[in-house]
Structure formats: C-alpha cells, structure tokens
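Entry: DBH-like monooxygenase protein 2 homolog
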Amino acid sequence: MIPLLLSLLLAWPPGTGAQQDTLMPFMENLDADSNVILKWGFSEVQGTIMFQLTVKTTGWLGFGFSPNGGMAASDIVMGGVGPNGTYFMDYHATGNSFPLVDKKQSYTLLSLTEADGQTTMTFRRSIQSCDEEDFHITVSQLPVKLIYAYGTSDDIRYHANRRGTKEVNLLKFMPRSSPPDSNYLDFVVENVTVPAERTYYHCKVMKVPKLNGKNHIYRIEPVIEHLDLVHHMLLYGCPSSVNQTYEKKCYTEGSGEDCIRVVSAWGVGGGAFELPEIAGIPIGGQNNDEFYRLEIHYNNLAQEAGRRDSSGLRLYYTAQLRQHDVGIMTTGLMVAIGWGYTIPPNAPAFHSYGLCNTSHFSDILPDPVPDLSVFSVALHTHLAGRKVQAGHIRNGEQIDFLGLDENFNFEMQQATNLGNIKTIKPGDEIVVECTYNTTNRKGITQLGLATTDEMCLAFVFYYPAIPVTSCCSHPDMHAYMAMMGKTVNQDIGEMFKTAAWDQSSTAVHEATMKTVPQIGFIIDVNKNYTMYEGNIRNMTATLSGKGDT
C-alpha cells in the first residue's frame, strides 16, 4: 500500500472496558426473542471451530448444519444436563424423523452447564471433517444454514415450535450495528483526472464539520465509481499544523505527509468493514478544526488517458462510545526506497521477511505497555506476491499466526476479522514472510510504490490503542555486502541489476537476506522513533501448542 516513512498508520489513546472473549469473539441471536444465542470462534491454522450454544431452557438442546434449512441431510449435535449428569452426541438426519447417531463422533464436548433457567453447551469440531456424515464448513463468502431446536425436559421428543434456522457466515462473519444516533461522513474526490500512468497516488486534504465531542467510527464503506481504477484508499487524520485544504499528487511537497494518523482504509476486492461491537475508531473531540487527508492509489492498467473518477470512503459514526479505541499498526518489511533490497528475476518462490520486536515499544512509550488484542489483519504485497504469513513469536518460539494467506490475490485485498482474538504481549515478535513469483520477469524487482514494485506488509488492527504507528525492519545491507565479500561503498542497486541471476545465486541471495541482522524501526504518531537490531526467526506450520494467552 504505502511506504513506511511516507505514510504511517495511526494508533489512538487507549480505551477502557472489559475484554472481548478471545476464543469465541463472534455472537449471533438465532431467534427473534434472544432465547437462543450462539457464540463461536475458530482457528484456520489448527483447522478447528468452537461453539457455545446458550438456550433459555433446562431441557435438551439441539444444534446443527443444514444444506437447505430443514432436517434432511443435516449434521446435528444434541445434549443437555439430565438427572444422571450430562449427555452429548453427534447425529445426522436422513429426513424429517429422529436423527441417527454418527458412527464416528466428530464433535468434542468442552462443557455443559445448567443454571438460572438456561443451559449452555460448549463444543468443538474440525472445520473440514473427514466424516461423510458431517457437514463441511468451507472458507467462502457464502453463509451457512444453522438449525436449532430444544425441549422443556431431558426426554428428547418432538420440538414443536421450539426450533428455527438462520443463515450465518461463520468464517467470514461481519457484525452489523445500527446505533440510534448513527450518522456518516463522506470523504471523496470529485472528478479527478487520472493520468495515463500505471500507478498514480492522488491526495485530497479536506476540512470536516466539528463533531459534538469524541465519537467512534464503527463501519467503513467504499464509495467506488470505477472498480477497474481504484486499488486502495487510506484516510489520515491531520495534526493542528495542517489548516488548509488542497488536492494534488501524493508524495510531493506540501501534499499532506504530516497527516499520518490512519482513520480508515480499504483495499481492492473488499466491501464494507464493520468493527467489533466493543471497539471503535475515534473521530472528533478536538478543540480546533479537523482536517483529513484522503489518499487513493489508482492502478491504471491500460494507461488510458482522460479518465476521470469520483471515489472515496463513507464512515459511519456514533456518539455512543465503545469500550476500546482501535489502533492500526504496520508491520513487515520497511519500504525504504534506495536501500537496495532486490527480488531476483525468474524466481518461482522467493522469500522476503520483516520483523517487529515489541520489546522496544518501551523505548518510546511510557511503561507499562499493555497487552494488545488483535481482531483483524490485512496482508499486502503487489503483483508478484503469492503467499503472505504473519508469524507470532514468543520467547523465541512461534506460537501462532496472526495472519496467513497461502493463495494471495492482488485483486482481493481486504481486512478480515480473525476467528479468535490474538494477544500480543510486551516482548512478542511479529515476523512477516512474503513469497514472490517472478518467473515472468526479466529484470530485478525492488521495493516501492508502483504496482510493479513490491511490498511485504501486515496491517494489524487491535485494541486498546497505543501511539505506535509502525514497527517494521529492513536487512542490514552493509552486513549483506560484507557477508557476500563486496565493498561497502559499491553501488548496491547497480550490482543487483547487472548480476547474473540463476537458481544458485538466487538461493544464496535469499538466505543471506534472511541471515543478516535486521534494522528495526518503531515510529509513533508524533514521528518519534527508535531503532534496534534483530534477527528473523524461522516459522513452521507446526506450532508450539502453547496457545495465545
């Protein structure tokens, strides 16, 4: 999206309030009277999904997945707390009759309790089961038809009208809020002439009406006129030193680079983005006029001349403040133009790395630095990117992935809510690894703004917010030159351009880039920064099993 030292992502002052359920952050009422409530969370890395069904009854509970909303061909679990203890079983239905017990019990009961007139059943299963009698949950944009039923006693009989069905997208869930005082602001450009260039960044600084105190943004919607032109958009809050509106090409003198507080973002292929119900992006509450900078990256693939566009972002906000302020932090490989980082041509799977060591947050932040609850991650590369993963390291050992996309698509870049809340503790590290395919390129690829350049970033959405906007790194190129037996004052860029790249030299280059020390940079909202040295840890698909606690 953007280079680290040109545009920085905002983190806001911390909020207060209770913590969200880290294992099951999603919740949906399955009936209109809120008698049947479902909570759930999942781990795509471990391939499991956890459910908690709470029903206002002291009788049996039934829950399942149906291809059409009815009993036939559905996958069901039933359980309860009876006179002789708890009972729980995995079933499947062949028609509108009592379901049959599965030969293979694919669900694991975690707890079953009965108190205050309601029963709560917590259980786990694989997302994709190998049992032909189970329903397969797929990672898609399509919702799943959930069915439920319950009785008034532990004698499992016909449920009568105590049943229902609801469509829910379990793995791509996006909550929808409608606060009674909801309002919105539009940040759009009007009739912008897009140059006949492959890559063009357009910036507009605008003044917004004063809001009555601090508000929380809870929903972000794109307003796109030409989907084939607009690749991504970012909205930045400006400091008090910015007090005039203007519109021009980004990253030129006076184009608003002091505006570094990211308020919202959108990427190609994405739709509306709804924040968790306990957290919001702060807006308003300033004593002075507020200015914002909208940045739009146009990807004019055909390099057509004379095209015009009016696009932007619509931000829904409410004065009903939520428990936490949201922060957004850039992690990964620092886009340092001119530092010589190079991806060789004709490489089917070249790996790049970036490091964030949170133990150095205290170098520029007052103690204590809080635990950060990560609820969403947006992964980003350009055209050569094929895979991106953000590993979570604790005490030198990988414990999880904050984000993982093994089939990265440049045309589908959207922040997605994680299946469970990931906790970043002080001292944890984030390692971002990107895999590139350059077999269709004859020349080297460098880091930069253009879509034909490359990036390797993970944008981390979390709460409570801290004033860190960016935590990225870059290989120590002096150490690289020394390790490769080159003179330090040699032109690195020219050396890479004229190198005879083959499979062997590419492998040595990749390994050396990973082995040399990383120069880390942590930057806050006031452009204060600290530098440190670190090393890239190895990541594996097999995690330590310590969990994210």
